[in-house]
Write a structure and sequence with these properties.
Layout lengths: L1 H8 L4 H30 L17 H15 L3 H14 L4 H17 L5 H17 L4 H15 L2 H11 L7 H13 L3 H14 L4 H13 L3 H14 L4 H15 L3 H7 L2 H4 L2 H10 L3 H9 L5 E4 L2 E4 H11 L3 H21 L4 H14 L2 H13 L1 H4 L5 H14 L3 H13 L6 H5 L11 H10 L2
Antiparallel strand pairs: 1-2
Helix pairs in contact: 3-4, 3-5, 4-5, 5-6, 5-7, 6-7, 7-8, 8-9, 9-10, 10-11, 11-12, 12-13, 13-14, 14-16, 16-17, 17-18, 18-19, 19-20, 20-21, 20-23, 21-23, 23-24, 24-26
Length: 454
Amino acid sequence: MRLIRTIFSEGITYGMVMCFLIGSLLGALLFIKFYLMDVVISVMPEIPEITLPELPPTWSQSAYDAYINGIDYGLDGDHELSIEQHMVAVQEDPGFSLAWAALSRAHSAMFFAGTDPTDERLIMARDAVDRAFQLDANLPEAHLALAYFFYQGTHDYQRALEQLAIAEPHFPNNTNLLKIRAYIYRSIGEWNAAIYEFERASDIESQNLELIQDQAFTHLMRRDYFLAESFFDRVLGQDPNHEVAQIQKAMIQLHQEGNPASLASLAQSALGSGRPWMGWLAAFIQRDYLAAREVLDETVSNTLIWNKGYMPKTFAYGLTHHLDGNFEIAQHYFQDAREVLELDLETDPDNADLLIALGEVLAYEGAHQSAALLANRVMELPIVANNQFVSPYYRLSAARVLTAAGEYDAAINELETYLSFPGRYSIDGISADPRFEVLLTNIRFQTLVNRYKR
């Protein structure tokens, strides 16, 4: 009280005292905020952001295990076991949307691989992906599965691309997505776009041999033999024993120049010993029909099968005898080959490889009209007509059928179309085939030679 009376007696007002006290309090608060609190915060450990854990895709461990097994089997190419495991997954947990999407992809893959190319298989693929969408309308994996259904099943490439575009933001840097888009672009003849997608995928996985090989095949189809060989060399640089790269590199000389020397050399190696078609084809192109038959004599298998090539051994015998002038002997072999092919077609009536081979056999047997009809039928099959990566092989085969049937103008029409679009063989590679020798003096064929000779 004495202090207060002294203050007022010296002329200090009450308001001034209050201002002094309030100012002191504010100063203390500011000191605490801007000094002490900064010191405390600076020494406190950083508190991590709290995120809620993702929910598991299924409540059932057995369903999840089956789902993973199904994925692994699919990667190994065993689509039947993949489907079996995914079926276990959805039976254990009917609400497992990821498993339904994976099941759809496995069905589509089985259809595409030719293991079961039936409408029933396609229906199962569509039903499974529809179930996935019912459980989760925005499931990215369902959009991806639907893209595979359109690409591998119905060959609706535009709709497949649309589904990939929806799925892609959810799968950044996914090389499989980029690869399937590249395959689609090849199918519709967008070759530059395909190469771009393969390059994007390779930037992510630069050591992926499959991606490097895919680029090699794409350049080979464009008849850019130098680039194709360089990509096969890249594969062999990482894996010198890579069988596909060795074979395809050896075939480039035949595709480009009609020269089978590299293939003949490889046929003498350990790699060629298990692939009799290599020695047979090299000798056949060289017109050494006796050597070609000797290769067949040592072949245990009843068929010669290679990439985009199928031939009963009896048909190979028939060709060498026919072109060697042994026409009666050739006819016996052709008859045997026809019976084999017709029997195989009873269980697989739309197999393009079987149909085109039967067409050529019939042509050499003299059933020219039937042979020509089969060649045309093959070119109208959806998997052939709608796929510009596949159709060149069958177009060249159709030209062989029509040539053997004496339909030279029709054969040259097919060859003209073949050469005007991407395809593995140059005009020099085509001219080297003994089956086209009868065309070499044809004026229209000579015009093709002059136009497309490298």
